[in-house]
Solute carrier family 29 member 2 (Molossus molossus), 295 residues
Amino acid sequence: MELQFPSAAILLCLGRVMGAVVYSPEGVERVAEEVRPRGDLPTDSHSYHLVGISFFILGLGTLLPWNFFITAIPYFQGRLAGANSTAWTLGTNHTSPADTFNFNNWVTLLSQLPLLLFTLLNSFLYQCIPETVRILGSLLVILLLFALTAALVKVDMRPGPFFSITMASVWFINSFCAVLQGSLFGQLGTMPSTYSTLFLSGQGLAGIFAALAMLLSMASGVDAQTSALVYFITPCVGIFVSIMCYLSLPYMELARYYLAKKPSLAQGQELETKAELLQSGEPQTFLGRWRPRGS
């Protein structure tokens, strides 16, 4: 398994589509001039920096949970192999023939499939579920799933039920991560590009942070149970901080300004896009220009 580092161009474009923010820069500037008077944009530098820090932490919180989850893969393999949790370390590889559950294959399938399905589903969810509900709901569900995973570290369980619970957690974690990222990128599409850069930087730091945590765990020589417990509690703290940052955005003047004008922008951008498609997608124009050979 590899740590996830986001591709800026792909994620940003995909998030804007999933968040129903398809626009051209010229269209945004024109609609923005129509929906607000000049000089209405807040110029408080403190608000600007606080919003940037909030989106940086939100970017960190979106990928930090899953990166920590896959870093603890040896812990799951050891539990499924029936090994004593205190007899091995997280650096041990349990990919022996005794791995009758094909853990790595199932984790790969059940993590990538919901990412695809729920990213597509998010393009329909935005029409019936408010953005705040999608973002906060996803963060809360991921927090509960990681709290459950951390609690299972101290619970003795047979490999079969433990495997089923872990696979269900993998599915739901990635499902809500897809909704969360698509919704946040859709929101970032109406804000200055600086915040998108900070958000992506936070996601990149999540992968680095998980890798450093794995190296420190292996170097310290602590038992696997303690290391796994720290691995699953750390994302819970990160998600909780992300929730606090998102809840604080409406209290920041700059964020409140962009969030308030988003519905007007989205409506104007949608009308503009439909007009462009109607003008450029007429079949008669294409057929009128086509001529068979020899005519």
In short: The chain has a mean pLDDT of 75.
